[in-house]
Write a structure and sequence with these properties.
Elements lengths: L1 H13 L9 E5 L5 H10 L6 H10 L9 E5 L5 H10 L4 E5 L6 H9 L13 H5 L20 E5 L4 H20 L11 H14 L6 H13 L7 H8 L9 H5 L22 H8 L16
Helix pairs in contact: 2-3, 7-12, 8-9, 8-12, 9-12
GO molecular function: lyase activity
InterPro entries: MLTG-like
Organism: Capitella teleta (Polychaete worm)
Length: 298
């Protein structure tokens, strides 16, 4: 009789809701024991009768299966559901968005300022930190454009380096996939050349649907050995010296990125890109135009 009463008592206990009047963050640190977690839950006044909670947790077999991480505990969750959350590792996720057209400097600034990402990386040391993960890239000292523009979900405590590694791996995957579906006869020696072109297309694009047309103009200019003559490359080559306005002197200045001066592509991408810019670079619109046509709607 007493065993049955105890069983039903624990069952009743497991269906009780946590003592919270709003969503509450709770962190399980790597290496935390069940007892330590129960004590913190009690200290935070999230549970009643902590001794019973620990017995209930052991009875459910959760003691050895607690997943570390940051959890969001809602007021309507029961003790049973809370333990299931801990056992399944249903941790809270955050997100960071790498925007198409961002430079590596802008991208790092945003990631370094994210309150839930650890271990900031300064622009000057990014090649040292991530160069060993990057393969098949001529300009290993400049990792510009090698991180795929997308939104990345992560747990609290994730490092900036971890996000960048994921973004680079994603870029390599998309670039390889799109390279395999490229149009014939393009003036690229390798996928990296297409990535450089994609970054120029991205910076020149005002309306997303225009990417293939912009790509068509640039590809035809390359084929005819005409200079690309695109302002974003000039701006990138000037770095911090650019203050918001180009003049003729700047367009004549010889830098590795000034496509008014050099022939062909600049040595590296000039910004982060997504799939659509890569696809446009590899499947440009057909036509004969060699210049952009100004339109009244921008």
């Amino acid at each position: 009789m007493s065993l049955a009463a105890g069983f039903y008592g624990l069952r009743w206990y497991g269906n009780q809701q946590v003592s919270a009047d709003r969503d509450t963050e709770f962190v399980i640190v790597p290496g935390d024991s069940l007892g330590r977690v129960v004590r913190r839950l009690s200290t935070d006044q999230l549970i009643q009768y902590p001794e019973v909670f620990e017995v209930f947790a052991r009875m459910k077999g959760v003691a050895a299966g607690l997943h570390a991480g940051e959890y969001l505990i809602s007021p309507d969750i029961t003790y049973r559901q809370l333990l299931n959350k801990f056992a399944e590792g249903d941790v809270r996720y955050y997100s960071a968005t790498l925007v198409e057209g961002w430079t590596l400097k802008e991208l790092l600034q945003d990631l370094n300022n994210h309150p839930k990402l650890l271990s900031p990386i300064e622009p000057a040391s990014v090649s040292l930190a991530l160069g060993k993960y990057v393969q098949g890239v001529p300009e290993i000292d400049n990792l510009e454009g090698l991180f795929y523009a997308d939104t990345y979900s992560f747990e609290a405590g994730t490092t900036v380096e971890s996000i960048l590694k994921r973004a680079h791996n994603r870029l390599q995957s998309v670039l390889t996939e799109e390279w395999g579906q490229r149009a014939k006869g393009l003036p690229y020696k390798a996928p990296y050349d297409a990535l450089i072109m994609a970054s120029i297309i991205e910076k020149e694009t005002g309306v997303p649907s225009e990417r293939p047309d912009i790509a068509g103009v640039f590809v035809r200019r390359l084929e005819k050995r005409m200079r690309l003559q695109t302002d974003p490359t000039v701006i990138y080559g000037m770095g911090d010296r650019y203050e918001g306005e180009l003049n003729r002197r700047m367009l004549r200045e010889r830098t590795a990125y000034n496509t008014y001066v050099i022939h062909g592509l600049p040595p590296t991408p000039i910004a982060a890109v997504g799939r659509e810019a890569i696809r446009a670079a590899l499947n440009p619109s057909d036509g004969k135009t060699l210049y952009f046509v100004a339109r009244g709607d921008g």
